[in-house]
Amino acid sequence: MSIILGIDPGSRLTGYGVIRQVGRQISYLGSGCIKTAVDDLPTRLKRIYAGVSEIILQFQPDYFAIEQVFMAKNADSALKLGQARGSAIVAAVNNELPVFEYAARLVKQSVVGTGAADKKQVQHMVKMLLKLPASPQADAADALAIAITHAHMMHTLIKK
Q1: Which CATH number fits domain 2-158: 3.30.420.10, 3.75.10.10, 3.20.20.30, 2.60.120.330?
Q2: E strand segments, 55-154
Q3: 8 a known binding residue?
Q4: Residues with catalytic annotation?
Q5: 139 is known to lie in a ligand binding site
Q6: What is the pLDDT along the chain (160 residues), one digit of tens a residue?
Q7: How far apart are CA 22 and CA 2, in angstroms?
Q8: Is the pTM of this model over 0.90?
Q9: N vs C: which end of the chain shows fewer Cβ within 10 Å?
């Protein structure tokens, strides 16, 4: 059995999703968003770090999975996203968690079956795979999809 924390980083809204994996079976433990409703970036990064640290304390995950940086149209946005990722990763490393990174395209492929899936498709498949009564918020669904991708990857590695 393992508990996996997935993170969909963002400088204003960071999604998180926590699942339990037992063999091939996955189950939902929790999800949500860390909201950083302030204007200055250093305070937002501090809130991301504190929020991820609190989630780690609450759920005691065994693995930390996060979306890789992708090239954005706006360089400033890409830099802020990278710093948000860094804050979350430091929280994981400070709590002795192994960090795994997955490309957005791989996450979509793993959960939906196509790397070109949109957010609605990801939300729907996360709802179905985890047998949730309703679709999670988009950023939380993306974070759960990242955790599910890690579960699939770990299961595939164990089989080999």
Answers
A1: 3.30.420.10
A2: 63-67, 99-102
A3: yes
A4: 8, 67, 139
A5: yes
A6: 999 999 999 989 999 999 999 988 999 999 999 999 888 999 999 999 999 999 999 999 999 999 987 766 788 888 888 999 999 999 999 999 999 999 999 999 999 988 888 889 999 999 999 999 999 999 999 999 999 999 999 866 555 4
A7: 7
A8: yes
A9: C
Cβ–Cβ < 8 Å for 42, 86: no
Which residue is listed with tokens 């070109």? 116
Nearest to 1 by CA among 138, 106, 154, 159: 154
Q: Is 39 annotated as a binding residue?
A: no
**Order of strands across the sheet with 99-102?**
25-35, 13-22, 2-8, 63-67, 99-102
